[in-house]
Specification:
- The longest helix is centred in the middle third of the chain and has 17 residues.
- This protein is α+β, with helices and mostly antiparallel strands.
- The chain is 23% helix and 34% strand.
- It contains 9 helices and 22 strands.
- The radius of gyration is 27 Å and the shape is globular.
- Strands 10, 13, 16, 17, 20, 21 and 22 form a 7-stranded mixed β-sheet that branches. A 6-stranded mixed β-sheet has the order 5-6-7-3-8-9, with helices on both faces. A 4-stranded antiparallel β-sheet has the order 12-11-14-19, with no helix packed on it.
- A hairpin with a 2-residue loop joins strand 8 and strand 9.
C-alpha cells in the first residue's frame, strides 16, 4: 500500500495563536486611556506533531473540543500557516473542513460547484460536466439556481461533501461531516466512506463518532490540548477518547483483579465477574448452536448511582462485534437508584444463532455516557455446531425453487 512512500508526512508541525486579554473597541476608549497597552497571551493550539499516513490509509483524528483537531487539518490544507515544522501531501488534495468555506454565498450552487472544482484541480470543462452529478448526490435538484446564502446548514453540508467526493482527489481531509445533516445524508456519507475505502484513497477524518472510527479507520490518533497522546489501533484510541471525554473527576483507587486486561471507568461501580448460561440457566463455557442462552455479569456499587446502564458487547475470534445489548434498548425506562454496597446481577437472554467458534464478552456499567466500569474481553465461550458456515451468524432459513418452462417450450 505504501510502496511509493506515505501520502501524508507531518514533521514537528506546531501552531500558536495570540489571545488579547483586553480589547479597545472604540475611539473614545483610546482617547480616555491613551497609555493603555493591550496585552496578549500566547495559546499553543498544536504542540509539535510528527506522524505519517500511508497511501490508501483511512486515518482517524479524535479528541475533545479544543484539542487541536481542526487546527491540524487547516494547517495541512493551507488555511492556517504553521509556526514551525513541515508537512508534505502527495497528490491532489480535497478538503471538507468548515461549513461554507470555499463557497461564494452570492453565487448559485452550480456556479459554486464549477468554481470549487477548478480550485481543486479539475478543468473548467470537467467541473461543468460533473455539476449535475454533484447536485444529484446532494439532492438539491430543486435548488440549483438558488444562491447558497439562502441554503440551510444541512443543504450547505450536503453540497460541500458532494463536491469533495466528486473531484477524484488522492487525499481527503474531512472534519465532522457525520455530525450534521439528516439521517438519510449521514447514511450516504457512510456508504461513500465505504466506497472511498475500497477505492484506496487516503482519508484523514476528524470526528466525535467513535463507531465510525472503528468501522472505517485503519489507525487513529488521539489529541489532547494540542498534543498527541495515543496513536494506533482505532478501538484503543476510541476507548481512550471516551475515558478522557467523560472523565468528570479523578478516578478513585480500586483493586484491579484483572491486571492483564484493559479496563476503563471511574469505578463507582465495579464488575466483579461475567459468565455464560445455557438454556437451563447453568453456567457453561460451551454453548450449542440453536439453543437459548444468556450473558450474565455481577456488579458491585461503591457509591450511590442513579439510572446506570448495563450492557455487553460480544466479539468473534475475527474481532467482529456480533452483539451489542444494553438495559436502555427500546426506550426502556431508567434502571433506578443503586445504593453504595449494593450488588446486582444482569442478564441478556437470546437464541444462539452464532456460527461455531470462540467468542469474548465485554461487560460494562455506564451512566450518562461515562464508563463506571468496562472490562474488555473478560470471559469467553465456545459455540458448537454440527454445521460449518462462513458467515458470522448461522440463521435458520428455508430454500425454495420455482421452475418455469422456457419460452420455446411454452409456444409448443
Amino acid at each position: 500500500m505504501d510502496a511509493l512512500g506515505p501520502a501524508v508526512v507531518v514533521d514537528g508541525l506546531h501552531k500558536s495563536f495570540r489571545l488579547p486579554h483586553e480589547r479597545v473597541h472604540t475611539l473614545k476608549e483610546r482617547v480616555l486611556h491613551p497609555l493603555h497597552r493591550a496585552t496578549h497571551e500566547n495559546f499553543r493550539a498544536l504542540h509539535p506533531l510528527s506522524f505519517s499516513v500511508a497511501e490508501g490509509e483511512f486515518f482517524g483524528i479524535v479528541g475533545r473540543n479544543g484539542s487541536g483537531k481542526s487546527t491540524l487539518l487547516k494547517c495541512l490544507a493551507g488555511i492556517y500557516r504553521a509556526d514551525g515544522g513541515r508537512a508534505w501531501i502527495r497528490g491532489r488534495l480535497s478538503t471538507f473542513i468548515e461549513l461554507g468555506v470555499g463557497f461564494n454565498m452570492d453565487l448559485a450552487a452550480r456556479d459554486n460547484i464549477v468554481l470549487n472544482g477548478v480550485m481543486l484541480g479539475l478543468s473548467p470543462r470537467e467541473a461543468r460536466r460533473r455539476a449535475d452529478e454533484v447536485i444529484a448526490f446532494a439532492g438539491l435538484q430543486q435548488f440549483t439556481d438558488l444562491k447558497v446564502k439562502n441554503y440551510s446548514s444541512g443543504m450547505l453540508v450536503r453540497l460541500g461533501f458532494s463536491v469533495l467526493i466528486h473531484v477524484d482527489a488522492d487525499v481527503l481531509l474531512i472534519d465532522e461531516v457525520l455530525a450534521v445533516g439528516d439521517a438519510e445524508f449521514q447514511q450516504k456519507c457512510h456508504d461513500q466512506f465505504a466506497a472511498i475505502r475500497r477505492a484506496g484513497r487516503t482519508v484523514l477524518l476528524v470526528t466525535h463518532d467513535m463507531a465510525a472510527v472503528e468501522r472505517y479507520c485503519d489507525r487513529a490518533m488521539l489529541l489532547e490540548q494540542g498534543e498527541m497522546t495515543l496513536l494506533g489501533d482505532p478501538h484503543d484510541v476510541g476507548m481512550s477518547y471516551l475515558q478522557v471525554n467523560f472523565e468528570q473527576r479523578r478516578p478513585q483507587a480500586a483493586p484491579d483483579d484483572d491486571p492483564g486486561g484493559r479496563r476503563y471507568g471511574d469505578r463507582r461501580a465495579e464488575i466483579l465477574r461475567t459468565w455464560f448460561e445455557d438454556a437451563d440457566g447453568h453456567p457453561t463455557t460451551t454453548l450449542p448452536h440453536g439453543r437459548a442462552c444468556a450473558l450474565c455479569a455481577e456488579a458491585h456499587f461503591r457509591e450511590d448511582v442513579d439510572d446506570p446502564l448495563f450492557g455487553f458487547n460480544l466479539h468473534s475470534d475475527a474481532d467482529h462485534n456480533v452483539l451489542a445489548a444494553h438495559s436502555g434498548a427500546g426506550g426502556a425506562q431508567g434502571s433506578g437508584r443503586f445504593r453504595a454496597g449494593e450488588h446486582v446481577t444482569f442478564r441478556v437472554r437470546f437464541d444462539n444463532v452464532l456460527a461455531p467458534g470462540r467468542y469474548d464478552v465485554t461487560p460494562a456499567v455506564a451512566q450518562g455516557g461515562a464508563w463506571l466500569d468496562r472490562r474488555e474481553r473478560l470471559a469467553s465461550v465456545v459455540v458448537t455446531s454440527t454445521q460449518a458456515t462462513d458467515a458470522v451468524v448461522d440463521l435458520p432459513y428455508e430454500v425454495s425453487l420455482e421452475r418455469s418452462a422456457s419460452s420455446s417450450e411454452a409456444l409448443v
